[in-house]
Amino acid sequence: MTESSPRLLSRWHAAALVAGSMVGVGIFLTPRLVAAATGTGWLYFGLWLAGAALALTGALAVAELGAMVPQAGGDYVYLRLAYGDSLGFVYGWQSLLASFSGSIAAMAYGVPRYQGEALFGPDIHQQLFELQVLDWKWAFHLDQAVALGLVWGLTALACRRVRVAGRAQLALSGAVMGALLLGAAWALVQRHGRVQPAEAVVATPTGALQAFVAVSFAYSGWNAAGYVASEIEDPGRNLPFALGLATAAVGLLYLLLNAAFVLTLPDVAQAPDAGSATASALLGPAGGQVMAAIIAVAVTGAVLASIVTGGRIYYAMARQGQFPVAAGQLHPRWQTPWLALVGQATWVSVLILSSTFDELLRWSGQSMLLLSVATVVAVPWLRRKYPDWARPYRAPGHPWVAIAYCLACLLVFTACVRAKPWDGVVGLGTLAVGWLAGLVHGRRAQRKDVKE
Fold first, then answer.
1. pLDDT in tens, the chain (452 residues)
2. Residue 404, domain CATH
3. Is residue 2 part of a domain?
4. How many structural domains does the chain have?
5. Three-class SS of residue 354?
6. Torsion angle (degrees, nearest 10) of CA 346, 336, 103, 374
7. Rounded Cα gap, residues 1 and 401, in angstroms
8. Is-contact 261 31, C-beta < 8 A?
């Protein structure tokens, strides 16, 4: 985590971390949303291809930034370096309160909630007990208990030496991607030409852009390796390799899976879980159970990757005085930010036990989209701001790539705001409040330094 700490992650560990962050539940739940807005013709596949290109663009941008500044914290470090403490402050605290923690909570809860019934039966949703105070009621269910156990078990694993988590991630990601690749190839061989795709719907530009939000969600996680850059061996070479290879491989896998969905299912838009529906259509109920198990393993890998990377954000913030000091401490034996990871798991548990994480994810989505733009634009900005800094890797095409990325994300953001204006107001408001809080914090820190 510091310059003297051992770098224990190989390029393959880092690539597995990226792939594990990306291949979660999104690829199975979002195809119906995309198909409903676009049909299953060229526009459908065009959006998935555009999502892969956008993710690869972002990954290569992060590769340059991470190779130049191989520190823990990922986007937090890059935004703070490029634009100052205030924007870094916004990103870090929003990651804890909403985006990272909310994503971990949603994925961990999603395993027993969506795949648990297929694997363990309907009893997975049973209520264990209920508390009532006056008119307020709160019920605790078995699927919540399973989600809590998953979060704390994976947090305990993440607290061990980072190589242990890296090996676990490599095994999970390798097994999941291998199984999905074989399954997609087999489905294409079995069903090629036998099922005609549903007729394309009349798509509108706004509808297509909104559908692209779902595609972007499925590709999210392409920046994962940047958060552990300080723990990767030879980050100048291995970080770009891991980010580029994993993102391109996931993009190819997603295109194959979508082809399998379209050629197998009469109407993808009517399949809440395209993966399970495709497996059931090919192999019957047993196939659906096998796919449910694969999805559960995939989501578990995504939860582990998010836990590992999220903890590094709060560690980096604590080292800069923007988070409680305890989060900046490393375990004396394992050299991991264990207190930051425990604190993260505690807040994630609160979200699982409440009903707020869906709202947190929805409200934070707009602002996180804009912050990803700031990360990509940081590449040409830092080239101009610090032209003499060593850059072991240079992302191709900048500043034009950054401009194209910015325009694409702004188009999507505009479509989302037109559809749900309140979400856009909340997203921009979150950024504004966080930025002001960062300014106040920075001024207080300056006054404290002057007094000392």
1. 444 456 778 899 999 989 988 987 788 888 988 988 888 788 899 999 999 999 999 999 999 999 999 988 888 999 989 988 888 888 888 888 777 888 888 888 878 877 777 777 777 778 777 777 777 777 778 888 999 999 999 999 999 877 777 788 888 888 889 999 998 888 888 765 555 555 556 677 777 887 888 888 889 888 888 888 888 999 999 999 999 999 999 999 999 999 999 888 888 888 888 888 889 888 888 888 888 888 888 888 889 988 999 888 999 888 888 888 888 888 888 888 999 999 999 999 998 888 655 555 555 566 677 778 889 999 999 999 999 999 999 999 989 988 988 888 888 878 777 777 766 666 666 667 666 766 666 666 555 544 44
2. 1.20.1740.10
3. no
4. 1
5. coil
6. 130
7. 31
8. yes
- Residue 236 counted as domain residue: yes
Answer whether residue 374 is part of any domain.
yes
Best CA proximity match to 111, nearest among 75, 148, 80: 148
Instruction: Pinpoint the alpha helices (H) of 160-266.
Output: 162-191, 205-219, 235-264
Alpha helical stretches, state H, 74-192: 75-83, 85-94, 100-110, 116-120, 142-159, 162-191
For the chain, the helix, strand and coil percentages under 3-state DSSP, each to the nearest 5: 75, 5, 20
Structural domain contains residue 6? no
Domain limits for position 279: 11-130+137-443
Characterize the bridge pairing of strands 136-141 and 127-133.
Answer: antiparallel
